[in-house]
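Box 3.1. Reading complex inputs
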Amino acid sequence: MKPFGIVRSIVTPLDRVNIDTDQIVPKQFLKLIQKSGFGQYLFFDWRYETDGKPKKDFVLNDLQYKNSKILLVRDNFGCGSSREHAVWALQDYGFQVIVSTSFADIFYSNCFKNGVLPIRVNEQTLQKLFSTKSEIEVDLERQIIWVNAITIPFDIEAHWKKVLLEGLDDIAVTLKHEDKILKYEKAQENSKFRIS
Amino acid sequence: MAQTLFEKIWNSHVVDEQSGRWLLYIDRHLVHEVTSPQAFDGLRSNKRKVRRTDLTFATVDHNVPTSDRSLPIVDQTSAMQIMALEKNCKEFGIQLFDIHSPNQGIVHVIGPELGITLPGTTIVCGDSHTSTHGAFGSLAFGIGTSDVEHVLATQCIWMEKPKTFEIKIEGKRRNPHAVTAKDIILSIIKQIGTGGGVGTVIEYRGDTISELSMEQRMTICNMSIEAGARAGLIAPDEKTFQYLKGRKYVPKNYDEYVEYWCENLKTDSGAKFDKSFTIQTDEIVPQVSWGTNPAMTVDVTGRVPSPEEYARGNPDEEKAAAKALQYMELKPGISITDISIDRVFIGSCTNSRLEDLIEASKVVKGKKVSSKVRAMVVPGSQLVKKQAEELGLDKIFKDSGFEWRESGCSMCLGMNPDILASGERCASTSNRNFEGRQGFGGRTHLVSPVMAAAAAINGHFVDVQDLDLN
């Protein structure tokens, strides 16, 4: 994974609560067996008419947001299905940061594994971001969002910060602890009520 | 110190801890065709193996057709994904219940019925409804594809420790045939919201839980994810042990395990939960969802609410409800029983087990499906299908005009040919009424199997409390 740098961009405001992963990537695109190329399917049913023309009133089709790298959404984003395809689509489309008041649990951890930073902010901050038209800057290293020369700090789990900043391979990190996995397995083997 | 059931299972699976993150050992890994191909690709490109093939089980369920299995699969992309799983299982040495196996079925139906699911175990699957297995006192998490790859390679996952959430389900239902586990869990989600359980593992407790069968408990745990929870749990009891006894993959000295589980797998008295909620079942009536998330649900005796009524002062929820009404083409104030339907789907990991089909069959026996309705039953597994056929349920359903199909996820998510046409309205026993979930433009109303069956006969929703269901 590529190390995560400073992200500077205007924000794409998608003003809806409880956006589920079925909306982020509809099921007909889950049959692909690779990880790439999902950006074209992002919010497919909201983005396109049935004849394939872009829907005029959907925010992703507004040209001013064309190169935006930051998506702004309301509470409980990414709920429902565990499909990681949702994050592959957001990432492939070009979103590197998603800001909301809360995220669904599985979606939240899926983000970090694909180099996408989900930021949780309070209601007031989210409102401020929804009303800004100018570029904002997200500095993960310093855990700061710059908006119109004002800084807004945000929290993030230390581990996930490290994973993004260093672009770590999760499995390689775990395999460094293999002695402990072996020790656990050994104890199970000797247990009277073995379950693994 | 007094511990919750969750804490006991969690603690007994900790391999390591690093600054507030825990590495947990996984006892059972269930794999299906949709969320696994990229994980196997990852293993291949890094020259990694599957660490515990003996703890990994695969089946095809999400996009398999539910029509005649002797015919080739028409949808080429589905066929490719199914073939990819076959190839991956062969290459990595994983047990696969393929499309022709007598053990094929929805992954959350076959886990318990094969005894792969056991009390006190940790289970993961690349599917959010893995929470179903919690009904057996197993800590079961849905995970993304990166974590599927991680578990294949290491048999572990990293997690932050979830908070604990006690939901007490108490009281006596007026009519347990009419007010089902589905109505209880929909009532809970209606009250705590789709985000009510985020960051938590729910333990369902209380006298109503003890009264429920294993299949009903699975329905409850299944929809924990619809409340946003990481997992749902129910402490195992005599019903759990009876259900699992003699199943294919349970341990040989089963009775000794039962003794051990009895002693160890319950929340100690005095253990503290981070959060608590109580629901009384006495007043619960059959539920019907009207909107585009499972919290948008009302009593069958009620009316479609206005956005203001639903949102109770939350402007974001009010906007969402207005959009939902527009999508569902419903007007506030109309009676639920006045809503006509075009389709009925009885199936999914929520409600496709034998008991669900038995209960639904009582409603349709000797009656005809409304001429305006197309109705189908999709048993959760080949085993459920076989058992139902032995009881003659297939005949009851077919005689009344239902289609009787092969097992799979089917119209719960419409990845196979079983989908709604745009604008069609469906009474569905599945778990998600999201926009387009059952087909682009399709409109889903979540209900119990008996409610779905009654809607099929009448062409609109009816209150099954008025029917003789004994």
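In summary: The first helix of chain B runs from residue 5 to 11.
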